[in-house]
Amino acid sequence: MTALQAMKFDQQGGQQPPKALPPWTLHDLRRSCTTGIARIGIQPHVIEAVLNHSSGFRAGAAGVYQRHPYLVECGRAVDSWADHVLRLKTPQEPAAQVISLRKGPR
User: pLDDT tens digit string along 81-103?
Assistant: First the structure.
């Protein structure tokens, strides 16, 4: 740590400054969302429909004959993702994290 970094560290009350994010694009958000939706259990063909991809499960014969738009499934997938993100963002109330202990007999 340089002298300048040490001075800034002291000025911030001993807390590390937040690290700068590497450069990113909107496509990075799309990729992260896709990975997250898969992680919470959404089926790959629904993810492809959410992304409006014409490759993957819609390539070849399936793309020619299968015309179902998966609108309901896409809605559920996006709602599930939104719920997941909100749970990550919203801290649990302290009462939900506390387990009551009863005093046993002496």
Answer: 999 998 887 766 665 666 666 77
